[in-house]
Amino acid sequence: MKIKVYLNDWFYNMGIVGFMRILKDSENLRKITVKENYIEFDSGILKDFGKYYFDYFMKRYDVPKDRLKRYQVQKAYIKKKSDYRDGIKYLKKTVMDVANKFKKDESGKDLKLISNEISKVKSEDKFEILDEQYKKFEEVLSREEISEKLKLNKVRSILSDQYFGQASFLQKTAASKRLNEQREIAEKDYIIPVYEMGKLMDFYKADNLDEAKKCIEEYLNLDKGFKDKNLEKFYRGVSKKITKTGNIDSIKEGLDSSKLYDCSLCNKFKSLGDDFEEKIFVPLGISNSNAKNLYWDFNNKFPICNVCKLILFCTPAGATDLFKSYMDGDYKDKTYFGFVNMDTDIHKLYKQNENFYNRKDEDSPYKEIILSMVQELGIESKWELENILFVEFDVNGKNCKLNYFNIPEFIAKFFTYKGKELNSIKDEKFKSEIVDLILKNVDIKFSIDRKLRIDIKSGYSAFDCYIACKSRYYLNKYRKGENEMNSKTLFFIYKNGKDINKYFTEHNSENKIVGIAYRMLNSVRTGNKNEFMDAVLRTYMTAQKEVPVIFSKIFSKENSEFESVAQTFVSGLISKETFKKSEEANKNE
After folding, report:
1. In whole angstroms, what separates CA 38 from the centre of its chain?
2. Among 39, 86, 448, 451, which has the highest number of CB atoms less than 10 A from its own CB?
3. Are residues 397 and 459 in the same domain?
4. Residues 396 and 451 in one domain
5. Each residue of 407-445: pLDDT tens digit?
């Protein structure tokens, strides 16, 4: 049976992208037809889709490879820093984290021995032990049962926590089963119903009653553990009608029954009994039976067909894992799953999400994908950018953090014409934070303030903050509909701040800079222009310099750049006079 799946909402599109990724990984993408707003495929390609599905995720979440890489990084750290106490501690933890999962197995004992050998390394002359134990660690992790369990546990953890809850093969009772057993459960619940119905409809269209009866009988004769209860119920009903009438049209009559609802997502296929609820897609699904008050007239039915259920089963493959290192909290708090939804054709949707996925390990994947689109499409990309919807989600128990953000015209203009300047920011975490906030249309002045205070304590140059201030200036101009802008004034302010720093440094009064900078930042935080100007006047009087006229504009009521100008001055004030090429480029803008 030919199946067409059309573009829909973002989560459905994520399933389409995931479906295509799985087929591409198995070298079967050529078997589907990709049109502008839909994909088309024969249900026959689903025969081995369960294998493709699990192969894909076992490759994507290769835990043994990750553990070996972590071992090598920690070993290199020990060698470079000669930090044997903490270094060996974390190296042992890498090994024991795996060993604790196999306490009763021979492999667990082997890993414990590896950990004990690592403990003997207390000086450089014993360093070769780490290389020897790495080879043993690698051998243990390559054992089929170890490799399979580590990968499968990771896959189960992500799919259960973030996407489907404890549905199907993700139930706790199935956790100890081997890969092939869990795959059979998933195939029974998500894949075989579509594959079997496809076969039946092919026989119906060919008017082949004998093969249709045979198809139904073969499925009904399967062991209970291999049958989907909804499909089984439907087949039994159709089988009775065929036996009674001897007419193949009983199949179509069964599908047209008033007892079956149209799918709420595609409105094309019939639901055989499934509803769109948590087990279908956790971030958006709810427990329908426990939430009747959320539905009109307490009708809590949200029927979904097996085709759509299969597509949503592929959503984890369509998402991109994101790690926001700049955020506070532990590892899980910083982990999100993202998707780029576009009002465009499937080819572009797939391509941009591939681009997004390939950049997931970069500190600012959003910026990179946007700048990539700008470079590829030029000025036309402004329209593309305005029609992008970025989605992030993270499910933690019953709580789901779901962030949507699209790109308003003024932000699209910023990234199109000025976005490349963000590359001048050297602190990758700060750059990621700035891009994140810009995309969410959140004022970046608070992040600049926080970064300036960090730079004051550390004594680092605040050139990154100057770039951020200039970006804020551009954003505010575009927000007001202005296209003509000149940031030379900001560079002039930045240079004046550096000149003051130079004066205090040359007169052995460098210690005064910290107090002045904090006083100025506090006035900016409270929006007190008078207090800021008082600090500026006192500083210039001390340095016996004339106050630049530009500062008087800060008092102008119509001027909304007080924070940008003030923070720019502080950026220069706490930066030493070391003129660099990047600063020269900004000067000549």
Report:
1. 24
2. 448
3. no
4. no
5. 888 888 888 888 888 989 999 889 989 988 998 899 999
Tokens of 446: 């608070």
Residues 505 and 579 in one domain: yes
- What one-character-per-residue DSSP string does 413-482 give? HHHHHTGGGGGG---HHHHHHHHHHHHTT--THHHHHHHHHHHHHHT---HHHHHHHHHHHHHHHHHTT-
C-beta of residue 186 within 8 angstroms of C-beta of residue 194: no
Q: How far apart are the first and last CA of the chain?
A: 61
- How confident is the model over 232-282, as pLDDT tens digits? 999 999 999 999 999 999 999 999 998 999 999 999 999 999 999 889 999
Other CB atoms within a 10 A radius of the CB of residue 59 amount to 11
Looking at the structure, do residues 399 and 460 belong to the same domain, yes or no?
no
Going through 17-116 in order, the beta strands assigned E by DSSP cover 33-34, 38-42
C-alpha dihedral (556, 557, 562, 565), degrees to nearest 10 = -30
Percent of the chain at pLDDT exceeding 90? 68
Q: What percent of the chain has pLDDT over 70?
A: 91
Q: Is residue 395 part of a domain?
A: yes
Residues 440-456, mean pLDDT to the nearest whole number: 95
Residues 168, 203: Cα–Cα separation, whole Å: 29
Q: Please, which pLDDT band fits residue 579 given cuts at 50, 70 and 90? A: very low
Q: Tell me the average pLDDT of the chain.
A: 89
φ and ψ of 209, to 5 deg: -65, -40
Residue with tokens 């159709």: 238
263 phi and psi, to 5 degrees? -65, 135
Q: Domain of 85?
A: 63-147
Please report whether residue 69 resides in a domain.
Answer: yes
Residue type, 78: I
Task: From residue 76, give the alpha-carbon distance in Å to each of 71, 318, 433.
Answer: 9, 35, 29
Residue 577 lies in a domain: yes
Q: What is this structure's pTM?
A: 0.85
* Structural domains counted in the chain: 3
Residue 103 lies in a domain: yes
Domain-terminating residue out of 147, 171, 192 = 147
